[in-house]
Amino acid sequence: MGSAVGGAGRIPGPRPVPLLGRRGNALLLAHDPIAWLATAYRRYGSISGLVRDDPTVVVALGPDANQQLLANPDLWQHSIPQHTTLSAASRYVELHYEAALRLTERMLDRWGLGCQLDVAYVMRELTLQAAITVLLGEHTSDVARQLAAAVRRWSQHNSAVPFALLRTSPGLAADRHSPHLSREVAFCLGGALARRREHAARNQSSTLLDVLLQARETDGSRVPDDAIVRRAMLLLRTGPATSAAMLAWTFFSLSQHPRILADLQAELARVLKGAPPGPEQLACLPLLDRIVKETARLFPPASIGHCTSAVPFDLGPYHLPGGTVIIYSPYITHRISELYLSPQRFRPERWLFLDPAPHVYLPFGTCGEMGHDPAIAIMETKLVLSMVLQRFSLGLAPSARVDRGSGRPLAPRGALSMIIAPADRPVVQRRAQGNVDEMLVLQ
Description:
By secondary structure, the protein is α+β, with helices and mostly antiparallel strands. 46% of the residues lie in helices and 10% in strands. It is built from 13 helices and 13 strands. It has helices spanning 22-31, 33-44, 63-71, 89-110, 119-136, 141-160, 178-201, 208-214, 225-255, 258-272, 286-298, 330-333, 374-391, and strands spanning 3-4, 47-49, 57-60, 76-77, 116-118, 305-309, 313-315, 318-320, 325-328, 392-396, 403-404, 412-413, 417-422. A five-stranded mixed sheet has the order 2-3-9-6-4, with helices on one face. The protein has a three-stranded mixed sheet with strand order 1-8-7, with no helix packed on it. It has a three-stranded antiparallel sheet with strand order 5-13-10. A hairpin with a 7-residue loop joins β11 and β12. The chain is globular, with a radius of gyration of 22 Å. It starts with a strand and ends in a 21-residue tail after the last strand.
């Protein structure tokens, strides 16, 4: 057993902020989590506290700490179910692929050469509409619009509060708006569920709600409506935002590396010949796969995560009490030079020889608290990229500013302004303003 906290092995970390105490440390962390954790890793090493000698919130960074988190899945309290009888995974993937393909085709038909667009916003709308289409189908426009508006408000709030742990800090009041926003989403889903009953009774499965309505518990009983609504909310909460963030960062990274973009477009033309990819073809695009993996390494959706211990446990040399909140960061791990050569450079070719262990490459986190299916995010990212880049290139707009956000998933803060260009011409490479140069060594 490690040293007890408060004994010989005191946890290093910053002192409490004058006057504000631990609340001040939490606010500094929330303001720019990545910068705060990078400083903590540099100053204190892999294990430190939000506040020195305080085991309430502990920072665990790097592969060794990640491995300890992954090795003890039963140690953590899970606010998101780790298993559910509502999983109908194969049908969900199929429905999601079909919806994303149709909506992307419609989106591209509206694009025009030379137009400027906010790629971050466009991708959020595309992935949100795809998720709602999967749940409700395409013939419930009023219900879908109401649900989309509710999810936008809910997601905006979620991304603005990067850590539930901040609400555990003394002096930080629990947010008063999140319950109202989640109830609004649940109300919309409950209404949609009632409208789908007739279709489900006829044994149709044209939407995910139909599939969930037909699901049965392990004892053969009908799944309760509130469980179906919770599962649907779980899919909407972070799934669309995760795909949108991965797409936005990939388009940006390719705009900074025209040669890699041209090589990818050549691969798409050779394999797909101008057509949308079938599900099996997405596995036959090796450069696209390497590009998506490299984007997820540099800009992991779960850039920072947290989990709460259910019982006392050892972490490194420290013995910590139950209820300790552990903060970890795939973002920090993915930028350790001992693990990745030139870690801040966009180099898809590194994946020709890399096969990292789960505690070394973990773009979607360790404790399962993100609440979405990474396979869906990867599939959707590959599908949209392959369709867009066969018809267009996206170059960064002049004087565009690109900053990282502070929420979950990691996404650009504000707009990501890009210009639609022909696919058969080299994209104009423009250097971005903003703090993105702290995340990626630009050419």
